[in-house]
Specification:
The strands form 2 sheets. The protein has a 3-stranded antiparallel sheet. Strands 1-5 form a two-stranded antiparallel ribbon. With about 260 residues, it is mainly α. Helix 3 packs across helix 4 and helix 3 runs antiparallel to helix 6. A hairpin with a 2-residue loop joins strand 3 and strand 4. It folds into 2 domains: about 100 residues, no CATH class; about 140 residues, no CATH class. The protein is built from 11 helices and 5 strands, in the order H-H-H-H-H-H-H-E-E-H-E-E-H-H-H-E.
Length: about 260
């Protein structure tokens, strides 16, 4: 173990003692100074999680959230110097955190909030003109091999709870609208200019968009969505992509890698 590891390891492990060999300029107790620094590190991580998950904090209250976030920070310290995405595993942690079981939708709201962060930091992209899609749809055979390329900021979150209504009701611009948590909802999270949008979409559309993001062709994605949702409307789903400027382009490469 090198000196840096020896200094850092106890920061998020309160059971470990102050590292040996520390000295202070004014001869004060190194253990006390280290304890202050350890607390500052933990508080900064909790604050970072609170910034990423403001609705989660509102749902459970500040005291509960900070206690839960402290345990998460100790279990999953940052793995990168970039703190923007710290807390990727927080939703799974919440889902397995017994004291949070009384708020069953909490983990799904956390997933939506992390999707919001990813959408905000995603790369820019130019939307495909509507005329281009109309020309492609004029030849149905092309649908068998074409892949839809979606905007890199677009994220789909499906949940058995009303995550969009819950999230919206806790925004400063909303007048605390009523919501029924037990209504399943799918969210489409994306960036429009510098503004991140959170929109409720039909489950069939969510399945369709998710399949496209996983590399399915337009036809495969449409068939999968229709198999799970008899009300799925391909025309409406494509129109929504165009209206929100989320369809970047098609590719005819049947071995398309959605990550490139």
């Amino acid at each position: 173990m090198n000196s840096q590891t020896g200094f850092a390891l106890p920061l998020l492990n309160p059971e470990l003692p102050c590292p040996a060999g520390l000295t202070t300029w004014n001869q004060s107790d190194p253990a006390l100074r280290y304890a202050v620094y350890r607390n500052n590190v933990t508080v900064s991580l909790i604050d970072a999680l609170a910034d990423t998950y403001p609705v989660v904090q509102q749902l459970v209250g500040e005291d509960f959230f900070r206690a839960m976030a402290r345990l998460f920070a100790q279990a999953q310290p940052p793995q990168s110097r970039v703190m923007a995405f710290y807390g990727r595993g927080f939703a799974d942690f919440v889902a397995s955190f017994p004291p949070a079981a009384s708020v069953p939708y909490l983990a799904d709201v956390a997933r939506l909030e992390m999707a919001y962060v990813h959408a905000y930091h995603a790369a820019d992209a130019v939307a495909m003109p509507a005329e281009r899609l109309q020309a492609l749809r004029a030849d149905p055979q092309q649908l068998e091999s074409l892949h839809g390329i979606l905007h890199p900021s677009m994220h789909i979150v499906r949940a058995p709870y009303a995550i969009v209504d819950i999230w919206s009701a806790h925004q400063a611009t909303d007048e605390q609208a009523e919501w029924n948590a037990d209504v399943p909802q799918s969210a489409c999270v994306f960036r429009n200019g510098l503004s991140v949008q959170v929109q409720a979409i039909d489950d069939g559309a969510a399945l369709f968009y998710g399949a496209l993001q996983s590399g399915a062709t337009l036809l495969q994605a449409a068939d999968d969505a229709a198999a799970h949702d008899a009300t799925f409307d391909l025309t409406a789903a494509l129109a929504t992509l165009l209206r929100w400027q989320l369809l970047i382009g098609p590719t005819g490469d049947t071995h398309h890698d959605p990550a490139h």
